[in-house]
Amino acid sequence: MLTPEQIETRLERILLKVQKPGRYVGGEWNSIVKDWEPDRLKAALIFPDIYDIGVSNVGLKILYDEINRRADALAERAYAPWVDMEALMRQHGIPLYSLETKHPLAAFDLIGFSLPYETLYTNALNILDLAGLPVHADQRSDHHPIVIAGGHAVLNPEPMHAFIDAFVIGEGEEVIHDLLEALQRHRRPQAGGQAGPAFYREALLYDLARIPGVYVPRFYRTHYLEDGTVSRVETLAEGIPNPVIKRIVAKLPPPPTDFIVPNIDVVHNRASVEIMRGCTRGCRFCHAGMITRPVRERRVEEIVAAARQAIRSTGFEELALLSLSSSDYTHIQELVQAISQEFKNDTLTISLPSLRIETVSIDLMDALRDRRSGSFTLAPEAATERMRRIINKYIPDEDLLRTTREIYRRGWTTIKLYFMIGHPSETLDDVKAIADLCKHVLAEGRKVAGMKVKLHAGVSTFVPKPHTPFQWVSCDTRESILAKQALLKRELRDRNIKLSWTDPEDTLLEAWLSRGDRRLSDVIYTAWQNGAKFDAWQDQRKFDLWMAAFAAHGLDPAFYTHRPRRVDEIFPWDHLSAGVRKTYLFQDFRQSLEGQIRVDCRQRCYACGILPTFANLRRDHPGPAWKCPEVKSPRRAEAPPGPAPTPSLEELPMVGD
Amino acid sequence: MRVRLTFTKQGPLRYIGHLDLHTLLERGMRRAGWPLAYSQGFHPKPRIQLASALPLGFTSRAELADVWLNAEVNLAELRHRLQAVLPKGIDILGITEVDERAPALQTQLLAAEYEASLPAELASRLPPRLIALLQASSLPRQRRGKPYDLRPLIHALDLYPSPDGERAILFMRLSARQGATGRPEEVLDALDIPLDDARIERTRLIFAS
């Protein structure tokens, strides 16, 4: 294993030959450099895309602080090197290393990946390989780091099951400490005083598998039916949970404030404060809205204090107040007042994304003086009443037009509207309505603000994600997506309307990876071996190579995304629970087919299952932070609920196309 | 109040460019609570002027910046507060107050001095090349497709062993006037020294006043 000094010497010879070498050297303000004392557990936290994207990831920042606060552990960071750097590193025999101390990743005890989206999977493999580690979990020994992964994508961990030792399902703030303590318990003495990881790996993994919220795939076996769907998932040892229920924190801990301040320009140059977690809107396509339940809010004073400290600690020029739906934060008016008061003498830009389509939102943005970007973003998602009912995001056209008119009238020149095509049962008429609505918004804008007004329509394509009411439906076909996009391009030719879209290849790859079963591991491995990486980057995309990888393993990608499904189909992710019942999701799906709206569940509880799952936590943490109803039933013994029941067999229609 | 900072740019910070250094100083000064004066307009920016862009990869022992503040603050206090919040690699060497109406640093710059640290075995072959270069009356070269004469941009060259004796130091004093900037890497190239083998540090900026 190379020493940090050897790595630095080799780096010096290549860094001036790559784009933006500042990505690869660390030394940022607020980065934490601790001594490599032998007893300390060393964790490498990795966002598997380039530094420019990964450095501002808040999830990893939380874990970085949690770990570094412990005297018995340290955390450092690494990111995916861009292709130019990777080529030179391989040529010069430089393994992937941490930015803080330049230790090779193989010297760490724990490697933790953040996997918020599926197109990072090949990068994770590439990073293990660049670290000189076996890519497959079953080929790693007692002297290799333990590789864990968390993030929204791993609510279906199966496609990555062959590469990751343990997945963290749900929120990481508390479970990270359970993991570190298990690692400490299972350390073994090093042969000959060598440095580097050393664990009784088998015993450790078994221990990890019994930590609530941790999924260790080697203790589960999937059985399949002849048609290729899952028949059941078997647990392979005593005490292994099925299902694995996600972890949550009952009360959001204080938000991180001492953000890493990059020395180079990156995508998000800002400090942020998460004002609330979860969302009560229940949009049926929304993965985040289903898997981050229940809603928990931070107090206004806590947010303001964190914002003040974050700006003082970083000197950033921008502050973002983050949540899935800012307008739904109970004290949003009070918060905006307090924040604008706090920073009234600063030149700070304050952003408040995810606002509801109503004129109140404009008042909020006005109070924050957000004119910097010159654009105002709204997400109607669909343009006909029928589609809005199907996806459960109901905004009448009049409300949208009233809001957009007012936005233009108050001086924003550009409005960004986000739509999604490919929703279940969508027709070309529904898509044409998107174009018509955009033109209408612009025409109305011209009446109040003249010819200078602009509109940006961002039209992405729906992916039926696991753990959502739409998990039973098919993806739109490539041909249909192309036809819909062609229609939009034809209809939206106004030079003041900018249209952007997602290529169907990107959507399909995301869909396959998000809905895959364990057999996808081989496909991912083959695709990576043949050169797939940076799949989220359009200029790096290698779609044919993915098709070839499916073919090489005798799998039809359409099986995962384009077929009718029995309503009692067991999904590859059914042994992982986000706390929301499958019966609830199915009921919601049925209501979607009938065009029935479900109102915000703050107004009425639909019994999604989150409350019974976390009833004891809820009891222990009363108060206004948690937006679900109070639990009145008596305390229950801490027994995990059984497997999620499947819908009753009397309603057994095929769904999908 | 206008203050002039002299500072180093060392370690990993040699891999960050001119604009990024500007932002880094700006953020540092905000962390330090300096009462920065901002430009007017839609995108107010703090008034900070760097004397001269340092090429990516070079370290420096002598960078200069002028900063405008909208309050009078004790210089030692300013220096202390800023140094406490700067990343490793930037050491403040000095801070002085200058006349608000004094000309911009960039316009006063005449020359810059550099030291290139070279492997000793490479240096042993250098003296004849050095002499030839200094004796030439012109050194026609091309940079980015444009022909120019390097010779008048070289004010002085010297070669001596490093303090530890393990490497050699090539000293260069090059013109740094606006529109007449000598580049150390061009001098190395003219001397047939591979850039990979050299570590270049800017050691001094020389001004008119």
CATH-defined topology of the largest domain in chain B: Alpha-Beta Plaits
Q: Total strand count of chain B, please?
A: 11
Output mean pLDDT of chain B.
94
How does the overall form of chain A come out from the CA principal axes?
globular
How many separate domains make up the residues of chain B? 2
Find the structural class of chain A using helix and strand composition.
alpha/beta
| Rg over C-alpha atoms of chain A, rounded to the nearest angstrom | 25 Å
Task: Provide a descriptive summary of the structure in words.
The complex is a heterodimer of chains A (657) and B (209). Chain A has 657 residues and is an alpha/beta fold. Chain A has a domain at 4-245: Cobalamin-binding domain (Rossmann fold), CATH 3.40.50. Helix content of chain A is 33%, strand content 14%. Chain A has 22 helices and 21 strands. In chain A, β17, α15 (478-491) and β18 (497-501) form a beta-alpha-beta unit. The radius of gyration of chain A is 25 Å and the shape is globular. Chain A starts with a helix and ends with a strand. By secondary structure, chain B is an alpha+beta fold. Chain B is elongated and about 55 Å long. In chain B, a hairpin with a 2-residue loop joins β9 and β10 (180-181). Helix content of chain B is 23%, strand content 37%. In chain B, strands 1, 2, 3, 4, 5, 8, 9, 10 and 11 form a nine-stranded mixed beta sheet that branches. Chain B folds into two domains: 2-102, Alpha-Beta Plaits, CATH 3.30.70.580; 108-207, 2-Layer Sandwich (Alpha-Beta Plaits), CATH 3.30.70. Chains A and B meet through α9 of A and α1 of B.
